[in-house]
Please model this.
Amino acid sequence: MKIAIAQLNYHIGNFEDNLTKIKGHIAKAKIDGADIICFGELATCGYPPRDFLEFSDFINQSNNCVESIKKESKGIAVVFGAPTINPILEGKDLYNSVYFIADQEILHIQHKALLPTYDIFDEYRYFEPGSDFNLVEYKGHKIALTVCEDIWNIGNENPLYTICPLDEYRSQKPDFIINVSASPFSYDHAEERLEILKANIDRYKIPMFYINHVGAQTEIIFDGGSTVMSPDSSIYEEMPYFREDYRCYDLKSVQNGLQSIEQPKNKILEIHDALVLGVKDYFEKLGFNKCVIGLSGGIDSAVTTVIAQRALGSENVRVLLMPSQFSSDHSVKDSIELAENLDIQYDIVNIEEAYQAYDKTLDPLLGDLPFNIAEENLQARIRGMLLMAVSNKFGNIVLNTSNKSEAAVGYGTLYGDMCGGLSVIGDVYKTDVYTLANYMNKDGEVIPQHIITKPPSAELRPNQKDSDSLPDYDSLDVILEQYIEHRKGPKEIIAMGYEEKLVKKILRLVNVNEFKRYQTAPALRVSSKGFGMGRRIPIVGKYLS
Amino acid sequence: MKIAIAQLNYHIGNFEDNLTKIKGHIAKAKIDGADIICFGELATCGYPPRDFLEFSDFINQSNNCVESIKKESKGIAVVFGAPTINPILEGKDLYNSVYFIADQEILHIQHKALLPTYDIFDEYRYFEPGSDFNLVEYKGHKIALTVCEDIWNIGNENPLYTICPLDEYRSQKPDFIINVSASPFSYDHAEERLEILKANIDRYKIPMFYINHVGAQTEIIFDGGSTVMSPDSSIYEEMPYFREDYRCYDLKSVQNGLQSIEQPKNKILEIHDALVLGVKDYFEKLGFNKCVIGLSGGIDSAVTTVIAQRALGSENVRVLLMPSQFSSDHSVKDSIELAENLDIQYDIVNIEEAYQAYDKTLDPLLGDLPFNIAEENLQARIRGMLLMAVSNKFGNIVLNTSNKSEAAVGYGTLYGDMCGGLSVIGDVYKTDVYTLANYMNKDGEVIPQHIITKPPSAELRPNQKDSDSLPDYDSLDVILEQYIEHRKGPKEIIAMGYEEKLVKKILRLVNVNEFKRYQTAPALRVSSKGFGMGRRIPIVGKYLS
Model:
């Protein structure tokens, strides 16, 4: 028996494109003589479809796709995820299901039993959990069909759930397992995923075909890494990360367990590739191709620009250098060098005249009050406006250049440097931005070394340094990670050896700046806890603030 | 037996203030000789605490409150909601519980069984549903304790749930029901709530004490309307909307069923009062008191300003009139008249000089390209920047003036007129904004009549009218409501008699503008489906777009 895996980049709600891709791969699998071809979770409609699921028209369009796929299944079995309607009045209206269609007949529909409802996941908002577990028989093989989370409660040891679907199948003696997934990337997730796959096979000792999505849906990035496991718990093959792929496997060979292909794992490499894919897909899926970025001479905008150039190509990246009276000479010089290294269009636009005009316009309102954050923010907002003017005139999407450390403590100007359609490095701490920059330079200097080595500064007043208002990034990032990724409270972080005053100050800054993050662009998620849909904090809450 | 109800405005995470309020009302109830005093759902920590619940420090602080309340309960029973820890490894870590504490002893803890996970609710993200149902006995009475949604599945007829908690209690023969709630306002919710209460009493024929929250938590507004029901299904008393209140009831009188006090119900009156409370609480809970608004001469900013003045007082509202070469004379004149009617500070700041400076600065980039949306947006963004400058210099929060119709179709400038910390009328359709304006003028002209009668215009180019780019608001609003509030698809709306081209255009506009709404302020929620946390749509989705 031959089993094909299509690791695809779906587009939420774009039924036509998703169907075209699925049909194309069915045709390919037929040519390869595959008996079964497998796609991802909710492959018809993309993942996560979120509240689109509440529209019956949306479900109808997905059902039309299922009908089309059925027509294509002559001589082959097609396994794919799609929402199905719960026929019983009681419970949620839908199931998150996996279809097994062969020879134009639906042989089986299995409903996802474990519905993740945490972090970025809201599945219980839409879906009723499945509770019947039946194998499908095909060409003499008994197959256990599962959807994503269904394999994440091995032997019922995951405290979130009370059912272990594969344990339910056990007595029916399946020959192998298929799991259709949409499991989002974070830099520590690939290893965890392989551990889970191994732990499953340790328990059941049969092959598993694990099919993941690849591609970004706004901030959520799917990394692929679809995996075939042999019954001896060895990895038969882990498919590539961050790109579509298709492979056809001989079940016998998988059972014998030899191939052993695994992808290299490296935090910064993965973050880099994830961000490039994230930018690429954001543009492609929205139907845009050009971006514009404000290049300050600092490391954040430099790294963002390199990502953009690698995602969109030099011809589609444009940068504005927008010096003021507070900008250092090297800011412009370094930026020009970077732009030339990347072969991208740059323009220098001095903001002093616009600043003077505001100053004059505001004079009757502000009078002789001393220069403070109002004037600092004016500069950042003028820059934001110039970027948006280019965006509106030429159709370039502005890319936001804030990093996660800044976003966390509110070190940025709303409608100024916090503007843009997509935050590229908004889930990357400043210390990791440096590592990224060095990684980008590994095969020769792309980012001028001076951008990496000079002390970070917003350059909004004379001789300003980030360190004037923020703790050093090494401590800041560790404390932030404990609070944000690991949900540690002040006492626990202080017990790690950090000064009480510093910890309380940082946690307070995180919480009082929720209003700013609420209004900023979605940030490509590369950690286990990004700002945005996976972290839901009340703005007017008064906790640690 | 005397039962007191405290309908309070809690503050999420502000344990100290919440505890002070609770203690104060326990003391009051003791003076009144009450046997029981009842508070709302999750009263210790406020509702909805969202991901704060994931911090064990947060739960510890709530538990400390419970201990303090226990100490205050000498001679009285105190009923209130709080999160409790699920002692079993399996399942979610917490319960959403109601405590019954009397004479410094916890007599009972009942866990919420029905966990809303739809619209703005994410309870299954945090809580394990309760499954044991036991009455508490106190002073010879058997009491059924329930939490909010627990009474919304009468006789198991709500398809979302499979358990009816009060049916479970039935065999234990309770004497009356207490329901601690946090049930958010929408303009059609109060009547629905009373129907549910009546339907419960029709079934169980015992009194019910229903205690709701009042007050706004960012965009979610709780309207109060706590209600005591007599066993004959008559309303004994419905407490006031939109303000804190405390009452003490004699159980005998309630059983006899006579008092019959109900609050007036009127969509526009309720929306008006909800918005005033929403603005007031946003400022109070964030510790601010002053706002600044851009007054354009149009109806949206006029209505927003009246709401602000009624919420914060004339001395705390400041407006900027920011005419350009495209502004009509009457815009400034009408705005001055409104400001004078409201007795608020106004300044006139012409934006032409700033606009010219941008024009000059951008000239090398934009050259001779014709005037278009880029230049229109520049004007809106200059105004946004001036408002933010006042905000940064003096600490006034900018109030956003966009209405729901505009927000829906993206008729607004990101970082321009879409700026601000809170969107006041962002959940009010344009046609309702007119009704609101007329309601505000019911006791004498507050909003100059000309603002209400003139055709709406953004005044960003010569003789611009909203009707140049948008369908008339009457059709637009009906189609939007069908799509947004009622989740009707294109076919269903076209079947209602609307032109196919128009319907498809509007639905497309709603979907392609998700990126704009993502970056705008939270909007006070007054409908059953507001933009924001209750409506979750993928930005890069390609559905009807």
